[in-house]
Amino acid sequence: MGVAIAKEFPGVVHKICRWHVVNKHMPHLTNLFGMYAKKNFKDKFYSVLNHPLTPVEFEAAWQELLDEFDLQKDGTLDSLYCQRQLYVPAYFKDQYCGRMASTQRSESSNFVMKKCFVNKHTALHRFAKKMLDFMHSRKMKESEESYHGTSKRLTRSKWPFEIQVSRIYTRNVFKDFEKKMIDCTAYDIEDNPIEGETCYLVTHTNRSSKLSWGQHQFKVRANKENGEFHCECKEWQHTGT
């Protein structure tokens, strides 16, 4: 599939579903989860896949995981590592996904349908009606969100940027934005000019001892004339918040 996509859709970024990659190796991973349950291997494994913001962080986190559990020669983990650029978010932060991958969008719809509308015993003639009910419920939900989106929201500050996005984002996305805005106050900012560019070094003031691989320090390049700022964490490019 990868070869065909590259040929027929040049320029398209093709990644693979993280859930399917991990699930393919689940029998062996389940054994590891049970073997190292007391040391929370399962939580640490998924944390390494999900939390690193940059390739540098992921590489450090992955190596720390292997060293802690002495799994440098584990074939399954080696296979997962070799495919890392295809499914680990830290490697495609340049690509906008709106916090959700394409497979997650379809699987989200499938989950709602199976939970609330149909099951494996649903007859074909009822399935068609239930599909219409499902589509109607989604449209009603979307209309509800659109209605709430037109109402004025209370903001935590008077910053023009926050006021602007409060009129654009949905309720859930705006809540996430506000949380990140508060989290930003945990960083120190200092000038860090590089080759004539306006750059800043942003450092977290309360470094986590649990995530020793965390970078906690990022460079931000600024173009004040155009009002453009680019942080190497690339959260804005990847999620829009």
TrEMBL record:
Query: What main location does UniProt list?
Result: nucleus
Which keywords does this chain's UniProt record carry? Metal-binding, Nucleus, Zinc, Zinc-finger
- List cellular component terms (GO): nucleus
Q: What does this protein do?
A: Putative transcription activator involved in regulating light control of development.
The UniProt entry's GO biological process terms, in alphabetical order, are: regulation of DNA-templated transcription
Q: Which GO terms describe its molecular function?
A: zinc ion binding
| Protein's UniProt name | Protein FAR1-RELATED SEQUENCE
Organism for this UniProt entry:
Setaria italica (Foxtail millet)
Source domain of life is Eukaryota
Q: What family does this chain come from, according to its entry? A: Belongs to the FHY3/FAR1 family.
Stored InterPro entries: FHY3/FAR1
Which locations, inside or outside the cell, does it occupy?
A: Nucleus
